[in-house]
User: Fold this.
Amino acid sequence: MSDDLARDLGLFRVLEDDGSARKDRPAVPTAILLRGYREMRRLRLIDAKMILLQRQGRVGFYGACTGQEAVPIATGLVLGEHDWVFPALREQSVMLVRGFSLVQFVAQVYGNAGDVQKGRQMPSHHSGRTVNQVSWSSCIGPQVPQAVGAAWAMKLRKDPNRPVSIGFLGDGATSQPDFHSAMTFAGLYKVPAVIVCQNNHWSISVPTHKQTASKTIAVKGRAYGVPSVRVDGNDLLAMYTVLSEATQRARDGHGPTFVEALTYRIGAHSTSDDPTRYRSEDEVEAWRKKDPLDRLRKHLVHLGLVDDASDAALEAELTDAINAAVKKVEELPLPDRDTLFDDVYAELPWNLREQREELRASPKAPAHGA
Ligand SMILES: Cc1ncc(C[n+]2csc(CCOP(=O)(O)OP(=O)(O)O)c2C)c(N)n1
Assistant:
């Protein structure tokens, strides 16, 4: 990949505004374009449905990534089965692209018996051991040193699968000490990590320009000796190209890459937030015009791969699958109370055995809605 501008100060793009792809960029295979489009559409529908369920009081909390879909979906498309993901707040969908079941995904929002985390996490703090993805981190920042630490372990073990560790953070998290420790370590030990900052312009109510005096976020990588690139995060093709190159560099033993993905959070920070209190509708509207799904659609229409009829069929199919998953999950009971005592001790100590017996002897709480 080459660019006229310094990669950490410019903006790497592949898609032009008219839907064409730049000729001087590597071509992205058609199968990847179509899969990416499908996954981005699915994610947008899932987010809308989960927010609706939260407003109806059927789930407690949800954090959407509307407007930012190109980043997690490109990540899922690029990663191999042995790679590990350390998400921040908006990357739970990487799991779905890597084959995690939609029913289990929805069950983690409900925290019921279908939830692989047995209802112990905050709702929506997804994780999937089968797809090497650790939990969403509500605590801002620690996932970056965790990702770098895992990458160091991969390097020390000389794992023949040559896995890569990918860690995410938001623009707000760049003000956390964890980010700086992780970058120092990553650069020094040349670990097989990719660190991706989703610069979505807001850290709840704090805009990026009040977060840092740095010209860009990507340029911070220079200080740590970590090659860095600033990329249009609303351009699936650009994200796919940059992440393919970064993961390949890591796999080939050339060390970490820091990626700033320039994007925008179209919705609220989470279902507990009201963004109209701190930002203007004009600003949101301007970013709606750069919507990553619309931009990709324009490209696919340009290539003759998508039209209104195929879109309608896709939307109907995805909506049915999401509604079916929600129905299935809502029929499940709460996690069994006994599971409270699982997974911490190989052998339960006497005091917990005693508490478990007390719990077993006590009446059960009424089920949801009873
Ligand atoms: C250590 C810590 N400090 C503060 C918070 C409160 N908090 C939750 S999300 C958030 C903003 C995060 O912004 P950013 O890193 O830009 O990610 P985004 O939400 O925009 O994806 C803050 C300050 C927290 N959860 N953890």
The two ends are 59 Å apart (CA to CA). The first strand starts at residue 84 and ends at 86. The chain has two domains: 30-335, 336-370.
